[in-house]
Amino acid sequence: MYATLKFKDKIKIVGVSGSLRPGSFTHKTVEMALQGAAELGVETQFVDLRNYEMVFYGMMEEDDYPEDIIRLRKEVKDAHGLILGTPEYHSSLSGVLKNFLDLMGFNEFEGKMVGLVGVAGGTLGATNALNSLRTIGRSLHAWVLPQQVSIPQVWKCFDEDGKMTDKDIEARLLELGRQVARFADFREMQKDQDFIRMWEALPLNPGGDKP
What we know:
Layout: E1 12-17, H1 25-38, E2 43-48, H2 67-77, E3 81-87, H3 95-102, H4 106-109, E4 113-119, H5 127-139, E5 143-151, H6 167-200
Parallel strand pairs: 1-2, 1-3, 3-4, 4-5
Helix pairs in contact: 1-6
């Protein structure tokens, strides 16, 4: 149904939800975007920050960080693409997601493909939060995709059982996940092509010619 990815067996996409609410709509939207990535055959992982022992950045020396922070950094570093989801609070991203990002750095984000999802209870959507995330992504040298999903009045998009009812939003979330996977695959393909170009550009062995 979708174009085959050359490196799908090695591509990993991690989704991070910046919400701590039980039954979080942010969780559901990030999971749906990951579903789109999984449709292309890549490995996916959903990161629920409630399951990690988090600390505030700067409150202790890095050598004293709990093991969960080290594990979380490794999970992000091992990913080829990321999907970041946040509710919009006071025209910005959530505090828990900002703290997560503060605990990361170039080692975890540089060169990664990043897709953004924002939800809001009001009619204006999550554009301000997504703009802030886009700026943070650039500062960490990540490739933030132009495509993003901002969902106003997110509570209207789900039924009482927590299932998505808005087919347009569902399609956009799935496509966002596919785009992150596709561009992560393109990035790996570029590395492969760069290797070939570098190999072919190597000088000939000066002692290799037979007399």
